[in-house]
Design brief:
By secondary structure, this protein is α+β, with helices and mostly antiparallel strands. Helices cover about 65% and strands about 10% of the residues. The termini are far apart.
């Protein structure tokens, strides 16, 4: 009876830890040095992962009636458990990476989002990017079309601005073009005016000549009468 009472708090602790867990990974930690074990615990803790060493019998009791009951066949030899309630792939990713440099660490199996995986399956899960990485990629893919659209709109705006400036430049050039035309008109008017004056002079001379001829004829007719 006393042994059962001693086991109960530990089983309840395990049950509480796995209650809202998204993933649980079992490992065999035999052979790890004190330094390696310290570094592993620190890295897991920094990623909000609970890492504990429990007796297999305690974990077996706690797993019963849960999604983690499928881990019972792997509860052999010394076992440690890594539990995550936030990032489902974090325990597999960190443990698999750590095992590459600390070969004494052996992954046994795990349950990720209700599905049980053996050691090879956990290694595949470890290759899945973290939630932050996935969100970053998603955000990047969403921002890319927006960035391209903004670039296109900016180019259109720049072209529109250039188009608006062009008529203004032409308007400024118009008076300059009209000035030579006005000068040419004046030059053309000058000979025309001189020609008009010449024609008036000829007309006046012709009139004077006609009047002189008429006077001479009148004088000639009056002479015999005397």
């Amino acid at each position: 009876m006393a042994k059962v009472e001693l086991k109960k708090p530990i089983v309840e602790e395990i049950s509480a830890n796995i209650k809202d867990a998204q993933s649980v990974v079992l490992v065999d930690y035999r052979g790890l040095t004190v330094d390696e074990d310290t570094r592993l615990r620190k890295e897991l803790r920094e990623n909000n992962i609970t890492y504990k060493v429990y007796k297999n019998t305690f974990m077996n009791f706690a797993f019963k009636g849960t999604d983690f009951e499928a881990l019972a066949p792997y509860l052999e030899g010394p076992s440690a458990i890594a539990i995550s309630t936030e990032d489902a792939t974090a325990p597999a990713r960190i443990l698999a990476k750590f095992a590459k440099t600390a070969q004494a660490l052996e992954i046994k199996a795990g349950v990720v989002e209700g599905t049980v995986y053996d050691a090879q399956g956990i290694e595949q899960i470890a290759k899945v990017p973290s939630r932050e990485e996935l969100l970053s990629k998603l955000l990047g893919s969403l921002q890319s079309p927006i960035t391209n659209l903004a670039r296109v709109l900016n180019q259109i705006a720049e072209k529109g601005g250039a188009g608006e400036c062009a008529p203004a430049e032409k308007a400024d050039e118009a008076p300059a073009e009209e000035a030579p035309a006005a000068e040419e008109a004046k030059v053309e008017e000058a000979p025309a005016a001189e020609e008009a004056k010449s024609e008036d002079s000829v007309a006046e001379e012709a009139t004077a000549s006609s009047e002189a001829s008429a006077t001479a004829e009148d004088s000639a007719e009056e002479a015999p009468a005397e």
